[in-house]
Amino acid sequence: MPDPQVVIHVNGSPISVPAGSMLSTALLMASAPCRISSTGEPRTALCGMGICLECRAIVNGVPHTRTCQTVCQEGMRVETQP
C-alpha cells in the first residue's frame, strides 16, 4: 500500500509530499528557500524547533508562518518570504 500523499504549491509549483510532512521538509524537497534575508541570501529552517525564525514563509497568505512547526495540508500554498 503506497504512503498517502498531499499536493502543496511552493512558489506556484505543485509538489507531492508524504502526508504528515513538516512544511520545512517540503520546502527542502522543492529546493525552495523559506525566506530571503535583508542582504538577499536564501534562508531555510535552521533549528527545526521554531526558535530561530529562519523558517518563516508565507503560507496561505499568512506571512511569518514557522514552516518547521506546520504540517503540510492538501492544497496549501507556500511562498518564499521576502
From TrEMBL:
InterPro entries: 2Fe-2S-bd_N, 2Fe-2S_ferredoxin-like_sf
Coiled-coil portions: none
MF (Gene Ontology): iron-sulfur cluster binding; oxidoreductase activity
Keyword Chloroplast in annotation: no
Entries under SUPFAM superfamilies matching the protein: 2Fe-2S ferredoxin-like (SSF54292)
Pfam families named among the record's database cross-references: Fer2_4
UniProt KW keywords: Oxidoreductase
Keyword Oxidoreductase: yes
Entry protein name: (2Fe-2S)-binding protein
Biological source species: Terriglobus albidus
